[in-house]
Every structure is written in structure tokens, then in C-alpha cells.
Amino acid sequence: MTSSPRVFVIVPAAGRGLRFGSPQPKQYLPLAGTPVLAHTLRRLDDLGARAIAVGLAAEDPYWPELRLSLTTPLVTFTGGAERALTVLNGLAALTDQAAEDDLVFVHDAARPCVRGTDLQRLYKAALEAPDGALLACPVADTVKRGGALGAITATIDRRDLWLAQTPQVFRFGRLQAALTSVVAAHELVTDEAGAIERMGGRPRLVAGHQDNIKITTPEDLVLAEIYLAWQKSQQEGK
Residue 180 — φ and ψ, nearest 5°? Predict the structure, then answer.
């Protein structure tokens, strides 16, 4: 009888959040009285992973102040200059624990509202998807391509378009090989699925929810607080 793969998690949290416009990295900003990253890690704790590896900036002064009470063991490592390097460093930090066929979830530090039910659906999909799986939402708005001076150059058919989210889940060895190839070729990918696609893979899209937002602007922080309160009320109403 084949045993289920073990689960590991990588959270790149080395970014400075320059687009946010705050001197403090956005993952450490307060959200409903608790740092964003703490919310994120508590959601991931429910996965029952063997370890959560958190990528930090060198000499991160905020991490030691984070108050966490998790059941999942934490591993920290130093992030790289770009996302692919950070995730590769995270894989290296887990190499002594993880096997080639184990599953690794990669999740943005600034996505604190991911639902536990979506994590479980994603896990089940990843078990059946050799090229991995990721949460995503179908595009609901009309999509325009812009040119010079903001002029519309085309309207894009949105019927097959999805907005990629995280977590994104892949077999440990497959993801490590894909990212190593990307870095060696000096190519830029904005998510892990892109690295797998580059090698001919076709990760599976798993429908998520719009409340799994990535905090990028101050407005997102306000919206995330509303989502957290709404999710809590939904749980209490059951």
C-alpha cells in the first residue's frame, strides 16, 4: 500500500513591500491587532505539515518580536534577491527532512485570509495532479490591453483566464528542478507554476475565493480586516 506524501510549507517573507509605501515590511503590519504574517502562519498551521519554512530578510529585526503559538515546527532561512531564489533556499532548508515525492506548499506571506477548506481541497487536488496545483479565481471583469498614453489596444477574451493565487503545491523534487533551471537560465518567473510550465508541466487550477487577497496596498489591509471579521462570523454561525 502506497503511503501518502508528507507535506511541507514554504513562506517567502523576505520582501520589503516597497509598493505598499510603509517603512515596515507589509507582512509585519498590524491586521486586526496582529501582524499579517502571524495570521498567515496560523492558517497554514492547520495543514498539519511536517514543517513550515519561512524565508526572512538578512538580519530581520521584526521576526524575533513575532508571537506565535503553532503546532507545526518552524524553520527559518535567508531569502534571496528574487522569489525563485528564496523558494530554492527554502527547499534547501528542508532537504534533510523532505523526500522527492513529498508535497510542498508555497504561500505568500501577505495572504492572511486563505480558507482552511480551500487548503484541504488544494491538497486533495495536488495528490492527483503530477504537475502540481494552485488556487486561482476565474477573471470576472472585462480585460483590456493598454498601449501608449493608456489607449486600449485590445479587449481580451476572459473565458479561459484565471487569476493565480497561492498556495501553489508541487512535488518537492519537481519544484526544485524547475526553479534550479529557471535560475540557471537567468529567467524571471512570477510564481512557482510558471517554473513548472516552463518545463512543459500543466499545473491544475483549483477554484479558490476572492477573499484570499494578497496585501499590496493600504486599501488591501482594510479589506483583509473586513474579510477576517466576516470569516469569523461565518464560523461562529455554524
Answer: -60, -40
